[in-house]
Amino acid sequence: MDFAAQWLEAHRNAEKTFIIGAGALGIMTLDILAANRDPAPIALIDDDVSLTGQTRYGFPIFGPIDGILHRNDLPLATSRFILAIADNTVRRSLSVKHKHLLYRNAIHHRAVVSPFAEIGTGTIILPGTVIDPAVRIGSHVIINKSVSIGHHTLLSDFSQIAHGVSIGGYGRVMERAFIGLGASVLPNTTIGEGAVVGAGAVVTRTVPDYATVAGVPAKPLVKPLKEEARNEEADH
Ligand SMILES: CC(C)(COP(=O)(O)OP(=O)(O)OC[C@H]1O[C@@H](n2cnc3c(N)ncnc32)[C@H](O)[C@@H]1OP(=O)(O)O)[C@@H](O)C(=O)NCCC(=O)NCCS
After folding, report:
1. Cα–Cα distance between 165 and 182 in angstroms, integer?
2. Domain count of the chain?
3. Alpha carbon of 139 to ligand 1 centroid (Å)
4. What does each C-alpha distance from 76 to 38, 100, 204 come to in angstroms?
5. What is the residue with the minimal CA distance to atom 39 of ligand 1?
């Protein structure tokens, strides 16, 4: 019997949790469940097959992802999954590809989440974060440590908020947007779909879809033109 078969057999009747992704976010997610004394047997799954068969803090790593998910001895009805994949677009693609799976949240017991906040499934919330009432958080959202989310804010599916971000009331963070370390978003401000807010920025107005902004106040980040592009511009 292989490593995964033995583990699955040992936990045959339990509701298990599988963390997809054994990188830094996978370990942070494992840390949340361990700190919460979550009763589920937990395993990590990763496509990096050099990790297959290893353990992290006593928890096994299986892989590759497709191989594990198609095993006959993996009981999907009693398995819950968390996508601990930091790239917002890759996380969304995996959730579409594996939409038949049952996902669950990982919310650290030291996060303060209002009973009047709504949270989807597959969302990860690290310790020290405070979520106000009337906040709506979608599915597969990642909220890092010590984040403050003001009342009536929307965090859409697959968005990601880095450590130490503050978002004022009535904010709107659209799908796959990323807000970098320590940024502040003034009340009533929208961060567009797939937009990136640089670390330390102060966002004072709407960030368009797919824009990257940085600085205080946040402005679009204009990269210096490459030499060839500059010459082409000079020719016109
Ligand atoms: C904004 C950001 C996305 C830009 O990344 P990038 O496109 O690779 O940009 P570069 O590193 O090539 O920098 C381009 C220019 O912007 C400046 N810049 C980069 N990030 C900046 C920031 N956060 N604030 C102000 N200026 C910044 C650089 O100094 C550089 O300026 P220069 O051309 O005068 O030297 C990135 O720097 C950032 O802040 N990411 C957030 C990281 C983070 O919070 N991770 C969380 C891990 S949990």
Report:
1. 4
2. 2
3. 27
4. 19, 9, 45
5. 198
State how far the Cα of 141 lies from the Cα of 217, in Å rounded to an integer: 26
CA atoms within 13 A on the CB side of 169: 5
149: helix, coil or strand?
A: strand
Q: What range does the domain containing 167 cover? A: 106-214
pLDDT at 227 over 90: no
Q: Which atom of ligand 1 is nearest to the CA of 179?
A: 44
Q: Is the dihedral of CA 227, 233, 234, 236 positive or negative?
A: positive
β-pairing, 212-214 with 219-220? antiparallel
Q: Are residues 80 and 110 in the same domain?
A: no
Q: Is 159 exposed, middle or buried (0-12, 13-18, 19+ CB in 10 A)?
A: buried
Q: Is residue 226 part of a domain?
A: no
224 lines ligand 1 (CB under 6 A): yes
Over residues 141-167, the pLDDT tens digits come to: 999 999 999 999 999 999 999 999 999
